[in-house]
Specification:
The complex is a heterodimer. By secondary structure, chain A is α+β, with helices and mostly antiparallel strands. Chain A has a single domain (about 5-85), classed as Alpha-Beta Complex (Phenol Hydroxylase P2 Protein), CATH 3.90.56. Chain A has helices spanning about 10-25, 50-55; strands at about 5-10, 30-35, 35-40, 45-50, 70-75, 75-80, 80-85. In chain A, the strands form two sheets. A four-stranded antiparallel beta sheet of chain A has the order 2-3-1-5, with helices on one face. Chain A is globular. Chain A starts with a strand and ends with a strand. Chain B has one domain (about 50-500): Ribonucleotide Reductase, subunit A, CATH 1.10.620. Chain B is built from 20 helices and four strands. In chain B, strands 1-2 form a two-stranded antiparallel ribbon. A two-stranded antiparallel ribbon of chain B has the order 3-4. Chains A and B meet through strand 1, strand 5 and strand 6 of A and helix 3, helix 9, helix 10 and helix 12 of B.
Chain lengths: ~90, ~500
């Protein structure tokens, strides 16, 4: 089992997103660098629209992730209500 | 009578309609004539419909998000220019990384734009074509935004004036140019594996995450903003590269051997380019995020290791030369830096010796073996400088026939001995910096015997003349301005003036 990873801007927009990721993926760890936050998690990261909306306090389209995304590592699956990154091994 | 609004289509449905519903099978012309490059590489595809792009971006959302990214980026660039952002960076030395970036990397973005435009025309699957067309536009956006943001520094600093002209001529820039020329002159599948997979997925994170974070750390708002704006597109590109390789491997078992050869080749070619990035990270950023070795560990060994574990079920293995790259991790930046330091008279940017504090940082990062091997060299060069005898190497280096880098890399297991390989082809002897480059040549000798090697071109009289002055003129390197040590340069004088002005009140 390997880590999947997502790197996000370190700004206001991403803060709610990061909080939601940490809530839904309790095994994840964060690494903070100037300007960016890298989140690693064993095997899978799930981002749920509902949790992000709760953290941001407003509607959030999953594709708005493109505005906060810097990098990722893992296989992507995306639909209206979720965005996941996972390895299949 | 009640009226119900039609149900909004889901993301997956909208994407399916865009990429499946809009394509058709040609009847006036044979499909093989419409897509003439689809088969010659030997890749076998049973079902083109098997390709699925995981980022289900329809055209409207692509334009929407890209426009939003541009608005955010240009707000920052405007503000940076209006408010003299160039005076707020950590040190004038820093701008030299931008000189390398603009002359080496930015033209590569443009080359990638052209390569993906080719792919957007040539692959017989509409999902892949759309993704490639989007990527082609992204790469053009990257080139443009990088040129635009560096243009502000060009108003003040030397060495940023002729990036496009220099890219086609200067000795170290031919390394990057030849890389993209090589990729763009291969077939569509090889290009996809070369740039979409090997470069984007395995290697560009190193350039755009820790290095750009370094730009943020050094107060360069303009570069960090274009860097992360570009990298947000890269996430899409990386995912395309990964889906593409999975798709190719799932289509036919014969494809694995061809793909493995491309992975081995393009990993090594891309890794060789990153030598200059290692130098930028370890020696040129005044404030540093992490040593090259740590970045390599995170982005190659951890992220790349997970990736190759996932591809193992298709029979794909780690690139054959990955162990050499790991052995070089502690010395790559230093071997590169020591070369550029000696070639300061023949470069379009400034070099300099690390300070005592920087040497301590390097020694902490790289350990006793590094200290044993390299501290005496730094001490020696410092003594020469103190005597007013900065060492500049007057000779022309021998270049590797494949990566075009001077032969300064050392043996994988002996960092005191230059690594030197050669092979004879059609009666001529060709030279290589490594087993990796030698194998690439031996697989396709007819391609690499045509290499435009800068040193050979100088020797043949094709670069303006026989003296270093002639050649610098040909390269558009302004002698006494763009080149030599940072210490004593016009850039340094200007920067010190800005710093002195900061302390003056009411003058």
């Amino acid at each position: 089992m390997s880590n999947v990873s997502i790197t996000l801007y370190n700004n206001d927009e991403s803060r709610g997103l990061i909080a939601a990721i940490l809530k839904d993926n309790p095994a994840s760890t964060t690494m903070r660098m100037p300007g960016v936050v890298k989140i690693d998690c064993p095997n899978k990261i799930t981002i749920l629209r509902e949790t992000v909306e709760h953290e941001l306090g407003r509607p959030w389209d999953v594709q708005q992730l493109h505005m906060s995304l810097v990098s990722l590592s893992g296989m992507v699956d995306e639909d209206d209500d979720y965005f996941t990154i996972a390895w299949n091994h | 009578m009640s009226v119900t609004a039609p149900k909004k289509l889901s993301l997956k449905e909208r994407y399916r309609i865009l990429t499946r519903g809009l394509d058709w099978t040609t009847t006036y012309q044979e499909p093989a004539k419409v897509f003439p490059h689809a088969e010659f590489e030997g890749i076998k595809i049973r079902d083109w419909d098997g390709f699925v792009d995981p980022f289900r971006l329809t055209m409207d959302s692509y334009w929407k998000y890209q426009a939003e990214k541009e608005r955010k980026l240009y707000a920052v660039l405007d503000s940076f220019q209006q408010n003299n952002g160039q005076t707020a960076i950590t040190d004038g030395r820093y701008v030299n990384v931008l000189k390398i970036f603009l002359t080496a990397i930015t033209p590569g973005e443009y080359q990638a734009h052209r390569g993906f435009a080719m792919l957007g025309r040539q692959v017989p699957n509409v999902g892949l074509r759309i993704a490639a067309q989007m990527q082609s536009l992204d790469e053009l956006r990257h080139a443009q935004t990088q040129i635009h943001s560096c243009s502000h520094y060009n108003k003040y600093f030397d060495g940023l004036h002729s990036f496009s002209y220099q890219h086609d001529r200067v000795w170290y820039l031919s390394v990057v140019k030849s890389f993209f020329d090589d990729a763009r002159t291969s077939g569509p599948f090889e290009f996809l594996i070369a740039i979409g997979f090997s470069f984007e997925y395995v290697l560009t994170n190193l350039l755009f995450v820790p290095f750009m974070s370094g730009a943020a750390y050094n107060g360069d708002l303009s570069t960090v903003t274009f860097g992360f704006s570009a990298q947000s597109d890269e996430s899409r590109h990386m995912t395309l590269g990964l889906e593409a390789i999975k798709f190719v491997l799932e289509q036919h078992e014969d494809n694995a051997a061809i793909v493995q050869k491309w992975i081995d080749k393009w990993f090594w070619r891309g890794y060789r380019i990153l030598a200059i990035l290692a130098m930028m990270m370890d020696y040129m950023l005044p404030k540093r995020i992490m040593p090259w070795k740590d970045a390599w560990e995170i982005y190659f060994n951890e992220a790349g290791g997970a990736l190759f574990a996932d591809l193992a079920r298709y029979g794909i293995k780690m690139p054959s030369t990955a162990d050499v790259a790991n052995k070089e991790a502690f010395r790559l930046s230093t071997e590169t830096m020591l070369t550029f330091y000696q070639m300061g008279h023949a470069s379009g940017f400034h070099s300099w010796l690390p300070s005592e504090d920087e040497l301590k940082w390097l020694a902490d990062a790289y350990g006793p073996e590094w200290e044993r091997l390299y501290l005496p060299r730094f001490k020696y060069f410092r003594e020469l400088e103190a005597k007013g005898e900065h060492y500049y190497n007057p000779s022309l280096p021998q270049l590797c026939q494949v990566c075009q880098i001077p032969m300064f890399f050392t043996e994988p297991d002996d960092p005191t001995k230059i690594c030197f390989r050669d092979t004879v082809y059609n009666g001529d002897r060709y030279h290589f910096c490594s087993d990796g480059c030698q194998h690439i040549f031996e697989n396709e000798p007819e391609k690499y015997v045509q290499a435009w090697l800068p040193v050979h071109q100088v020797m043949q009289g094709n670069c303006g003349g026989a003296t270093i002055d002639d050649v610098r003129k040909y390269w558009a390197v302004e002698d006494g301005e763009d080149n030599y040590d940072y210490v004593g340069s016009p850039d340094e004088t200007m920067w010190k003036g800005w710093q002195a002005d900061r302390l003056k009140v009411g003058s």
